[in-house]
Write a structure and sequence with these properties.
This protein has five helices and no strands. The chain is mainly alpha-helical.
């Protein structure tokens, strides 16, 4: 089967949109709960890794024409999928901002 048939499939687009909407709904439902949101991010990262290692790598082309088509698609359609991790520096910056806010309890002493 032609790869374009899969990529252009409205059924596939609908399924992917549904998955994305479910993820957004779940994240919105737990807004402010960093532990739950961290668990969600870890699950997404683990799923990404499993799909990449167990399914994607096995499906890589074994001839130059198909490899060229894949690389061309990667280049034209937005690059390589990547899940960015929050840098520790950004996390610490958030803590610094919280600590620099005026503390009303210290003014009572």
């Amino acid at each position: 089967m032609n790869q374009d048939q899969y990529l252009g499939s409205s059924q596939l687009r609908i399924k992917l949109q549904t998955i994305a909407a479910d993820i957004h709904y779940l994240a919105d439902s737990y807004q402010g709960n960093s532990l739950v949101l961290l668990a969600l991010l870890r699950t997404l990262e683990q799923t990404h890794r499993e799909v990449r290692e167990n399914l994607f790598q096995a499906s890589l082309p074994d001839n130059r024409q198909e490899l060229y088509a894949l690389l061309k698609d990667i280049e034209e359609a937005g690059g390589w999928p990547y899940i960015e991790r929050m840098r520790l520096r950004e996390l610490l910056k958030n803590m610094t901002l919280d600590n620099s806010a005026p503390n009303s309890s210290s003014s009572r002493d």
